[in-house]
Every structure is written in structure tokens, then in C-alpha cells.
Amino acid sequence: MNQQFRGVIPPVVTPLTADQKLDRESFTRSINRLIDAGVDGLFFLGSSGEVAFSTDERRREIIETAIAAVDHRVPVLVGCIDTETNRVIEHAKVAHELGADAIVATAPFYALGGLPEIERHFRLIHEAVDLPLFAYDIPVCVHVKLPGDLLIKLGLDGVLAGVKDSSNDDVAFRFLCDDNRKAGHPLTVLTGQEVVVDGAYMAGADGSVPGLGNVECTGYVRMWKAAEAGDWKTVREEQDKLAALMRIVTVTNGVSGFGAGVGAFKTAMALLGIFDTNQMPNPVAPLQGANVEAVDAVLRECGLTPVRTPEEVTLSTQ
Amino acid sequence: MNQQFRGVIPPVVTPLTADQKLDRESFTRSINRLIDAGVDGLFFLGSSGEVAFSTDERRREIIETAIAAVDHRVPVLVGCIDTETNRVIEHAKVAHELGADAIVATAPFYALGGLPEIERHFRLIHEAVDLPLFAYDIPVCVHVKLPGDLLIKLGLDGVLAGVKDSSNDDVAFRFLCDDNRKAGHPLTVLTGQEVVVDGAYMAGADGSVPGLGNVECTGYVRMWKAAEAGDWKTVREEQDKLAALMRIVTVTNGVSGFGAGVGAFKTAMALLGIFDTNQMPNPVAPLQGANVEAVDAVLRECGLTPVRTPEEVTLSTQ
Amino acid sequence: MNQQFRGVIPPVVTPLTADQKLDRESFTRSINRLIDAGVDGLFFLGSSGEVAFSTDERRREIIETAIAAVDHRVPVLVGCIDTETNRVIEHAKVAHELGADAIVATAPFYALGGLPEIERHFRLIHEAVDLPLFAYDIPVCVHVKLPGDLLIKLGLDGVLAGVKDSSNDDVAFRFLCDDNRKAGHPLTVLTGQEVVVDGAYMAGADGSVPGLGNVECTGYVRMWKAAEAGDWKTVREEQDKLAALMRIVTVTNGVSGFGAGVGAFKTAMALLGIFDTNQMPNPVAPLQGANVEAVDAVLRECGLTPVRTPEEVTLSTQ
Amino acid sequence: MNQQFRGVIPPVVTPLTADQKLDRESFTRSINRLIDAGVDGLFFLGSSGEVAFSTDERRREIIETAIAAVDHRVPVLVGCIDTETNRVIEHAKVAHELGADAIVATAPFYALGGLPEIERHFRLIHEAVDLPLFAYDIPVCVHVKLPGDLLIKLGLDGVLAGVKDSSNDDVAFRFLCDDNRKAGHPLTVLTGQEVVVDGAYMAGADGSVPGLGNVECTGYVRMWKAAEAGDWKTVREEQDKLAALMRIVTVTNGVSGFGAGVGAFKTAMALLGIFDTNQMPNPVAPLQGANVEAVDAVLRECGLTPVRTPEEVTLSTQ
Predict the structure, then answer these.
(1) Comparing C-alpha atoms, which of C279, C208, C199, C296 is closest to residue C27?
(2) C274 plus C212 within the same structural domain
(3) CA–CA gap between residue C23 and residue C46 (Å, rounded)
């Protein structure tokens, strides 16, 4: 098993300035805060890292800034997310050139295909770029569930180093962890969950990639250490606290999907002073007014202390 | 909170004779075995109890036989599953008349509707029949997910006594458990999971309704007692063993859905001598030949001891 | 080819009294009006005939009333819609006993299955009941699309007499018509469409089953006769007029699915004096107030003349 | 109404050499053949033009080659398909710079969003690039259906010039055509269908974008001219012949989606001598062996005359 990528590896959210440029200062501040919290790695340009919204130039800028800020303190995984193989390979080569420690790719999307295309896709990426490759299983975006037996096969063949599971299918996840163990643990299996990470750890996950970790990461680090120590009571307590905090993504009105989820993360981070704005990429609007107040209220209920007012955050994008 | 329906409440599988009649003898044998294993209740005519395949006469026969066999040793829940309200109420009145302790109903299905129809549906059932009513959340059959806030509202209004959650949405499940706790625990929240029950218990479930419990129930009883005692190490160990046993539903070929799932349960029960046959209801074929052998192999790997050969079971339906 | 079931065969909507009993008088009035308009058959207890909402007793009452009212003037098809095979066969036997000329059944639903179960399902129904059997392809309710090659095979084997296609998949429909023609036309292929019947006729449909025909049937009869005569200009003109009328199902607010669709049909029929009320079956609410006015406005735009006011119709269910 | 983009506008399939380079010679040959057949425009980099598989460099190469080959004989539409707004705008600027006459964009995909995001997306593209903009409605790839009222609104606001409808929802298509007519025809509404184009023309389509037109375009041109003349008998006859030819995409085995559809188009074009190979982009495999023979047989049944053998085509990619 690859020990390099075990533990808590948050998918880092990308801060923007009011005019939608990369906010390098906020980005570095957030990265330092995550590393100080004790993360085991950082995942840039994931779905919540707004990879789908970022042009090639922006992606390059994010990777460069991230790798400079991390400065080898923890391993860096880079999402190379695009519709089909050749486009993914282009991103992967850039990530390699810029110093990524591992790359993360979904199955092909947009065009319709089947399992043979998915298998060839991962094999071609692996052949093209000499970096550990994680399969990113995210059916809500890609509209296909990666089958466990294909993942294990690609693990045993040395094509895949691991899996980042955002499938929200906890039954398949447990079977994957079991099969992986029986096969000699070729894959590092990470859960992309936020409020049921405790269950994923009981199922045998090698770590987690929680988007909410951008807002509050120390709890996820404590939960992982407790799981490693078999202290399930603590695991559960930490998870309950984090689940309460996750309500920032459900208390808003009139927004949905990425705008509600990453929108709430960015808003919380702006309230907490980590980000300068809660700006979102086109065509998504930032949370404003009553929605910012709702996020603020959840933070306070959970014992976090905003350093900026909701009004200041609402004004930050204008 | 209604304490009456907490704990392990398996959805009882319905045995058939080779000519597809109800096999009352096997049914009574299975019921006694479950009660001896220490279950806290029994759920008849659930999805795995082949409610959808059973005529009104058969449903009545199942309820009568079940209630006589249980003989008040544990509470009896009866599934009143049908397309729309008036049909469900008919089933519920029969269940009431025959002595059920609680009834279980899904949202309406077949015709398209929205949340107002779902809410009126549960209210009308509750008004018509004076028994505790559980909402059965099973989107894979009903094609709608019951929203947590509607469930809590119906709980607070005294319409629903509980929820049987087979939604396979563990994130929504944790939020439901949290909201239920905050609301004063109006609902008894049971998970319909089999291999991730440990996670559901950590999330705060009041019990479980595991179909696999028909094959091996003592493990689920031990897991629940351990969860109640906060002994999460034991919870996890029991779950891992049961997850290994659940592979009986994935080792077969050429079958799917109900035929693969309940087909494997019945086959395992026939191999273990609980049921006389592994017969399935029309239009589903029973497992045969190599598929029976595959189930047999899993049972043996898990330390269970079949008392009949795969060949005997294959011949049992002919 | 079975000539008996070609042409326009509306799925008859079921009128209820304010207290949700079958309104036999309105039902007979509507049936006579349809036959006078020149329909080639009538389909009772289809999806829009509220089969899913009707208890066994109500289904029997509907069939008896319908067959008495029709009095052999046109063939009568009866929907035998239920979750699984044995339940469908029960309904089919009742339909046979009461004098139906043909029966209509969907694939099994609720429990998960595959194509082998679907094929056995139709074969078992055919073996059990000696009446022409139509397969009802309605994925929006049943959540499976019947494959064309299976339908043709069952047609050639004498299991199916025809198909009522409500799949809204016009590509599959054209291929089905083509394959049916090549196979010697074993199936009578009817479209369940309302606003693209012209396209279905160009594709080779043997007739149509338009729910909107309950409101205005003479146009559908003219369209069919024009199609038979190859007068496509008239076909198109009639379709355009009927498409305009179909807007009664899209002009309402706050309702969806069956409540919006059949709710609008019943409301239009109440406004036109065909039905005494626009009452809906539990748990669906009838259209009221502004929604009734919206339907009224569409009728008037299309040149129809309501004989009752929107207010009278709103009050009809109270 | 914009008359510039009415009629038959095939989505041009992109030929590759055996080593997956753009085959400029075959491309030019195919373009000339289409223009000679009388098309009213050409659409490059659509879904069947393998836009999702093409890197930015390849996209540029395709546009440059196409525009040079077309040489202003017909209008050129260019697909600017990518996950989110800023990436689409980049492609649109390149298309503009290289001389496209119009651009075509889908709703955002991959990240989850709602209607507000879709509306802003099209508005932002329109503001950024001064070219007629078509909305590409293709839920099978993008997993959202564009609502008719939003399309009309964007048409009336001058944001959209038209719609390329590949939604396979013929009911919504007819309502869109009707609403467009009532609104003064702000949108040019093109159907992406191949075998039910006759129905789309009866519904009021302004033209068609048939992928099968790459293989046989003269029939589509005759069908459109007949529709314009109100000669529906000819429309239907041409459609029936083209539907028979479309079977090239259903006669193969072991392939699916893009590989089956565009794979069959390329194979037919290689057999007919239009393309030098039937090579497919990574990760899709070209049709081979028995699948090529099956396509060949359909071509011959439809009266087309392959100039190369199936074996030659199978060898063309090796």
C-alpha cells in the first residue's frame, strides 16, 4: 500500500478576488492554515476546487501558486478533470511539469461510453504520465459509477494508485474496501464524504477528502487520528460536531448545487477571515444577504468565531 | 420516543412451496429462529417479504400465519405497500383487523405526483387506521426520496411513528437522525441497510431492518447490543463478518434485482435447512445450479454449515 | 394484423362525485360522447383512467359501468395494472369475466428485475387469460423501457396482440413500427401521445390512445381518417389545433404530474358540462380557483364553449 | 427570424488518420460532398464532431481546415462545448477569430447548478463574443433539459439566435416551436434527430442537424425541400429510407454510445470511400471485423455501394 496518501487530504477551495481573479494571498493563507492543522496532503483542482470552471491558464496558475505555498510540506494531488482522455492527459502533463506528487482523474464524461472506454481511459493516462494516478469516482458529476472490480483490477495492474470516492454509495464503498484488503491493498481508498466519514473509517477507508475541511480541519485531523487508534467514541463525537457545521450548505435559500455547497464554504471562510471575498466563478453567483447571515448563524452555533460581519462579506464581491 | 420498535427488526422473507403456495411450516420455523436469536420485532410484507408479488389473499394469509406464529413474543409490523392511498388504506385495515402492532407504507408510486400528494397520503392513512405508522423510504422502488423535513413535521404532528430508511443515502440519514434528536425524537428511525449498519448506528439510528438477518440474525443482535453499550469495536467486527456474508447477493450470474437479492436469501435459507425450497414468486425464477453453489461457497467461507447440498436445493423447486 | 384495435382509442378518464364515488352518470355521458365522435375503441383503467388509485372494488365498478354503457358499440380494452404478475392476472380474470375485449398490462414494477422477468410476466398473463393482450410501455411510471426486439418476439409468439406506447421515445417508436412491418405486422402499435400523434402516424402507428381525446375527440378522429387517406396536410392542421388545446395541462401553477394532467382533463370536462365535478382521487387535490380559470381560458382560445363557470367548477368538489 | 441558418445543417464528423491525427484530406472530401449535396450550412465540433475528445489545438486545427474547405459556400457553425462559462468563452473567441458564422454552446455541465446559472451562462457568452449563439439542448450529455420558456426569453432578449434540439423530447419540441411562432419567431429551431425528422418538420422545425447526413445527405436535402413545399408524402418516404439506413448504429455488438453511433458513421464513410479510415479518438475503439461487416450489409440493403471491403476498413486503423 502506498502510505504517502493516507489520512486527511482536503480538496482545497480556490479563492477569487471580487473581479474573479485568483486571490493568491487568501489561497496561501488557507493552505498554511490547513497544513498547520495537520493535514496529510492537499488536493487541488478537485470539483470543489472549481476545476470545471477554470481555464487552462487559471489551472496552471492555481497549481503553481499551490505548489509554491505548500513547499513540500505535504504531498500535493492535482485534479486533471476533463471530458475525454487526450484532454485529461494534457492537464496531467502540466501537473507533472509543475511538480504535482499525484494526479486525480474521473471517468470520461459528456460523450456516452461504456466500461471498455473507462478502462482504456485510465490505462492511457497512466501510460502518458509517470505519476501516481487516483480514480475520482463522482457519479453526480460524471454520471457513471466506477465498478469495484474494475478499480481493483487497475490497482493490481499498477495503473491506479488509489480511489477518491465521492459516489455517496456506502455499500459499494465497504465492498471496495473489503476487496482491496483481500487483493493485498493495491489501492489507497479515500472517501470524499463529510458527514459520514465515521462510517467510511469503520468500513476501512485509508483517509478522507472532506470539502468542509476548508472551513474547519482540526476536527477531521482529530477524527482520523482517533480512527487510527481505534478510539471510535472520539471518531463519532468529532463527526457529530462536523455534521452540525455542515449545515452551512443546507440553510440557504434559492441556491443549489455548487453555488450552495462551495458557495457556503467560501462564505464561511470569508466570515472567518481566511478568504477576502466569497466570490464565485462564472456563471455562479456568490451567496449574499440573508444567505450569508444564515451561514454566519451556523458558524456561531458551532462555536466558531467570525471576524467579519455578514454585511462585509456580502459587500466583498461588489 | 416510541421504545416499542427500537432494535433489530428483520424484514421477514416469505417461503414458498415448489408450487408457489405459502409454506407455512418453513415460515413458522424461520419466525421462531428469529425470535430465538433475540430480535426486537418482525416486519412482514416488506419489499423482501415479497409484498409486491402477493395478491390480497396471499397477503392476508401471510399476516395471519405470522401473527399466530409470533404469538405476541415481539411486536409485529406489517407492510401495506400499494400504488396509491385508498389501496394502501385497504391493506392497513386488514392488517389492523388481523392484529398488527404497526403498519409500514411507502409514498405513492406509479402515478406521478409531488410532495403535497405524499403528505396528504400519509395523513389520510393515519386518519383511516389507528395504528403506529412508519414511512418506508425506498427510492429504488418508489422513485422518490422522502425529504427529512417532511418526515420530522409528520412525526411532530403525530402522523408518523417512525421511518424505515432504505434510501441508501447515508448523508440524508445522518441529517434525519440529527433533526429528529433536535425535535425531541418524535420518530423511531430504522435503517434498512445490511453492510453499513455500523455507520447508521454511529449516525444515531434507533435500530435496523436487515434483510440478511433472515440468514444470520445473531450477529445483528450482537451488533445492536454493542452499539447500545457504546462498544464500537464489537459493532465493527460484527458488521465486517456480516458484510462478508452479504456477498451471497453478488456472487451469482445472470440474475438481478429481487431475483438476485431475495433469491440469494432464500437459497441460503434452503441450504441451511430453514426453508424447504428456494422458490420465488412469479415472474422471478429461483436460483439454480452454479448460482446455488456460489451461495453455498460463501456460507461455508463465513463459517455457516449448510445441511443440504446445492443439488438438493436446485431440485427443491421442481 | 388485428384490425379490431386500430384507430382512435381514448384512455377514458374516470369521473368522481364530490365525495369520491364513481359518478356513473357523467361516466356514461362521456362514453356516449366519445362513441358519437367516432372512436374505434375505448380503453378503461389506463393511467389516466386512475387505475393506480382505484381499489379492486372500484375497478370492478368501473368495468361494469363501462361495458354496460358501451354496449358492444366499440371494442373495450381494460387496463390490468399492478405491481407483479399474480396481481395482474387477478385483474385480468375479472376483466375477462366482465366482458372486456382486450387487456392491457405494463411490465412489473416496484420490485427490481430484468428482461427475463418482463418476458415471463407477459407470457404468464397470456397463459392465464384468453384475451388479446397489449403491452403498455410507460417508463415514466414503470421505470423500464420495453425493448423493441422483445415486443416483436412476443408478438410473433402470439403472446402480445399489440403495444400501447407511452414511452415518449419517438426514435424507438419508429424502429418498432419498422420492425413490426418487416415481421409481418404481428403487433397493433398504438401511440399514447397527444401532441405529436402526426409524427407517430408518419412513423407507421396503427392508431392512438390520446388522453386529451376525453376533452375533444372529433379532432383525433379527423386526424386518423386523414392519416389513413394520406392527407398529411389535414393531419398536421388537426394536430396543431389539438396541441394548442393540450396547453390546459401546462397553464396551471403549483400542481404536477397526475394532478396537473388528468386534473386539467377533468376540469375541462367539468367546464364543458361532460363531468359534474373535477374531483380527483386520494391523495390528489382537484384544480381550483385560478387554475380552473386558466383551463377555462385555454378552452375559449381554442374555440370550445364552457357551459359552466370556473367558480361553479371550483365549488363542484365542495 | 434569422434565415441564414434554416434547412439542413449536418454536424460534420471528424476523420482521423490511423495514428489519430486529423485527416485533412478526408475532411475536405467529406465537406465538399456535403456542400455538393445541397446543405444549407455545416456544423463543426458538435458532439458527433468529437468536440469532447479534441484538445484545444485539435479544435483549432479542425476549425481552420473546415473554414478553408468551406470557403464561404455555406454558413459555418462551430461548437464551443466545455464544462463552464469561461472555458466556453475561450473556445468561442477562437471560433470568432478563425471566421465562424455562428457558435453553438450547451448548458454548463459537470458541476451541479440550476436555471439561474444556465441563464447567466448564455448571457455571458453572448456578451463576450459577437456572433449568433445557438443553445445546444442535449440532456443525454449535459444532464439537464433546457426549458422552452427560458429559450424563448433568451431569444426575445437577443441572447440566442436559435436552438439545436437533441433532447429527444418531441412533445417539448412541438411546444417550443409553437411558443417560438407566437413570440414572433425569435429563434431558429433545428432538430438534431435523424429518424423522426418528418415529425419535427410537421411540428414546425426550421431545419435539421442530422448526424446520419454525413453518410447520406441527399435524402435529407430532398426531405427538407419537400417539407418546405408541403409535400408530406415525399417527406415521409425520404424519412423511411433514412431510418432504414440509420440501422448502421444498431446492428453492431459489444459497443455503445459514441463508439456505436459515430463509430458506425465513420465506418460507413470509410466503406463508401469518403474517409480513409474509421479511426476513433481515445479512449474509443474503432469498429472492427464483424461489426464492420454488419454496417456494410446495411449500406448494401439501402442501395449504397461500398467501394472498399469490410476487411480493408478493419485494417485501415492498424
Answers:
(1) C279
(2) no
(3) 17
Same domain, C66 and C161: yes
State the catalytic residues of B.
136, 164
Number of domains in chain D: 2
Does B210 share its domain with B278?
no
φ, ψ (nearest 5 deg) of residue A283:
-100, 25
Nearest to A202 among B174, B236, B244 (CB): B236
Q: Same domain for D149 and D225?
A: yes
Does D140 contact A58 at a Cβ distance shorter than 8 Å?
no
D193 chain-C contacts, CB cut-off 8 A: 170-171
In whole angstroms, what is the distance from residue B251 CA to residue A166 CA?
25
Model pLDDT for residues A69-100, shown as the tens digit of each residue: 999 999 999 999 999 999 999 999 999 999 99
| pLDDT tens digits, one per residue of C217-229 | 999 999 999 999 9
Cis before D283 (ω within 30) = yes
| Domain that residue C270 falls in | 250-318
Query: Hey, are the CB atoms on C258 and B113 less than 8 Å from each other?
Result: yes
Q: Within 10 Å of residue C19's Cβ, how many Cβ atoms?
A: 8
- Determine whether the interchain pair B117/C284 forms a contact, defined as Cβ–Cβ distance below 8 Å: yes
Using CA of residue C132, residue C138, residue C143, residue C144, what is the dihedral sign? positive
ipTM computed for the complex: 0.97
Does chain C reach chain A with at least 3 CB pairs under 8 Å? Answer: no
Q: Are A106 and A170 found together in one domain?
A: yes
Rg of chain A (C-alpha set): 19
Which positions of C are catalytic?
Answer: 136, 164
Cell of C169: 421515445
Q: Is position D78 within any domain?
A: yes
Residues B222-238 have a mean pLDDT of 98
Q: Say how far residue A76 (Cα) sits from the centre of its chain.
A: 12
pLDDT digits (tens, 9 = 90+) for B245-277: 999 999 999 999 999 999 999 999 999 999 999
Cα torsion through A29, A30, A31, A32, rounded to 10: 50
Q: Which chain C residues are Cβ-neighbours of B120 within 8 angstroms?
A: 282-283, 285
pTM: 0.97
pLDDT digits (tens, 9 = 90+) for C108-164: 999 999 999 999 999 999 999 999 999 999 999 999 999 999 999 999 999 999 999
Give chain B's radius of gyration (CA, Å). Answer: 19
CB distance C213 to C197 below 8 Å: no
Q: Do residue D259 and residue D297 come from a single domain?
A: yes
Asked if the Cβ–Cβ distance from D196 to C175 is below 8 Å, we say no
Does B have 3 or more CB contacts under 8 Å with C?
yes
Report how far residue D186's alpha carbon sits from residue D134's, in angstroms, rounded to the nearest whole number. Answer: 12
Q: Catalytic: A241?
A: no
Q: Which of B84, B110, B284 sits opposite C113 (nearest CB)?
A: B284
Is D164 known to be catalytic?
yes
The pLDDT of residue B4: 83
Looking at the structure, do residues A226 and A256 belong to the same domain, yes or no? no
Distance from CA of B39 to the nearest CA of C (A): 26
Residues B117, C52: C-beta atoms closer than 8 Å: no
Identify whether C239 is part of a domain.
no
Whether residues B152 and B259 share a domain: the answer is no
- What sign has the CA pseudo-torsion B103, B108, B109, B115? negative
Band of pLDDT at residue D147, cut at 50, 70 and 90: very high
Compute how many other C-beta atoms are within 10 angstroms of the C-beta atom of residue D127: 10
**Contact D174/C196, CB-based, under 8 Å?**
yes
User: Domain of B119: which CATH number?
Assistant: 3.20.20.70
User: Which of B174, B199, B231 corresponds to the end of one domain?
Assistant: B231
Residue from D16, D22, D84, D91 to probe the interface with A (highest A Cβ count within 10 Å): D84
